[in-house]
Write a structure and sequence with these properties.
The chain is 28% helix and 23% strand. It has 265 residues and is an alpha+beta fold. The chain folds into two domains: 4-130, MutM-like, N-terminal (N-terminal domain of MutM-like DNA repair proteins, Alpha-Beta Barrel), CATH 3.20.190; 134-257, Helicase, Ruva Protein, domain 3 (Orthogonal Bundle), CATH 1.10.8. The structure holds a DNA duplex (16 and 16 nucleotides).
DNA sequence: ACATTGACCTGAGAGC
DNA sequence: TGCTCTCAGGTCAATG
């Protein structure tokens, strides 16, 4: 799940549920999802404090502690948050749990353990170290800035969209979605796109990411011309033209596309 | 520079 | 039913 729309949805979930309450206890069931600290250090870092506000850059989520410091949350491929009171509701694979003073728990759930939590003492330094580019939905990333970022790059367009150091937040699923709406074949070299192509791509990037976020990343709530709900459907047809969708490897990832709407150059 | 592959992890789903 | 195989929405390092 966790591309920009997913992480933005998690951010709103955390805003609605996990802020402004004192963390009484931190339980780490698997230390592999704790980075840059031992489980004891993380517990020490959080206990007695509150999370006060959130910040998201690309696929990375940060929660500010009261006083100094932040908590970083990265969701890997299978991570999400669960806030609950009844222990019977505790999800499987909740590798880290924050127990709040109000009796609720916030679990960091990650079946494959490719995500992590980490204490962050200096947010600016952390962002620099992660080498994250501008957030894909940052208002400053207008069409002109988008063209500027593409300048000089010779990668395939899908690789570029997924390059977190260039633009942060787009992964395999939403790069496919964006390229589908823009009518661009995923393996097209970036230099083959003209300004009109890049402007169109930029427009659909914003549009697709906002639309997916608005639908809270529920495939059933997305517009009828979205590919996301068709990802795991065998023999799916293009929602626009009915051509059977095809798959191709790009950037080492399986990419779904419509051979008619996204012709190979 | 760029593309590809394997590793990190582990479960879900397909095929036998 | 149970076993084996392949694949999965993210990154990173190593290799061509």
């Amino acid at each position: 799940m966790p591309e920009l729309p997913d992480v933005e949805t998690f951010r709103r979930y955390l805003d609605a549920n996990g802020l402004h309450q004192t963390i009484e206890e931190v339980a780490v069931a698997d230390e592999r999802v704790v980075k840059r600290a031992s489980p004891a250090e993380l517990a020490d870092y959080l206990q007695g404090h509150r999370l006060e506000r959130t910040y998201r850059r690309g696929k990375h989520l940060f929660a500010a502690l009261d006083g100094e410091g932040w908590l970083e949350l990265h969701f890997g491929m299978t991570g999400y948050l669960a806030y609950y009171r009844d222990p019977g509701e505790a999800p499987d694979y909740g590798h880290v749990r924050l127990a709040y003073a109000n009796g609720y728990q916030l679990a960091f759930v990650d079946r494959r353990k490719l995500g992590y939590l980490a204490p962050v003492r200096d947010l600016a330094a952390c962002l620099a170290e992660l080498e994250l580019g501008i957030d894909a939905l940052d208002p400053e990333l207008d069409a002109a800035a988008f063209r500027e970022l593409a300048k000089g790059r010779r990668v395939q367009v899908k690789c570029w969209l997924m390059d977190q150091a260039s633009i942060a937040g787009i992964g395999n699923v939403y790069s496919d979605e964006i390229l589908f709406h823009a009518g661009i074949y995923p393996r097209t070299p970036l230099p083959d796109l003209d300004w009109a192509d890049l402007d169109r791509l930029h427009g659909y990037m914003s549009n697709v990411l906002k639309t997916a976020t608005d639908s809270q990343v529920q495939p059933g709530a997305m517009p009828g011309d979205f590919l996301v709900p068709l990802r795991k459907v065998d023999d799916a047809a293009c929602p626009r033209c009915g051509t059977p969708l095809a798959k191709v490897k790009a950037c080492g990832r399986t990419s779904q596309y419509c051979p008619t709407c996204q012709p190979t150059p």
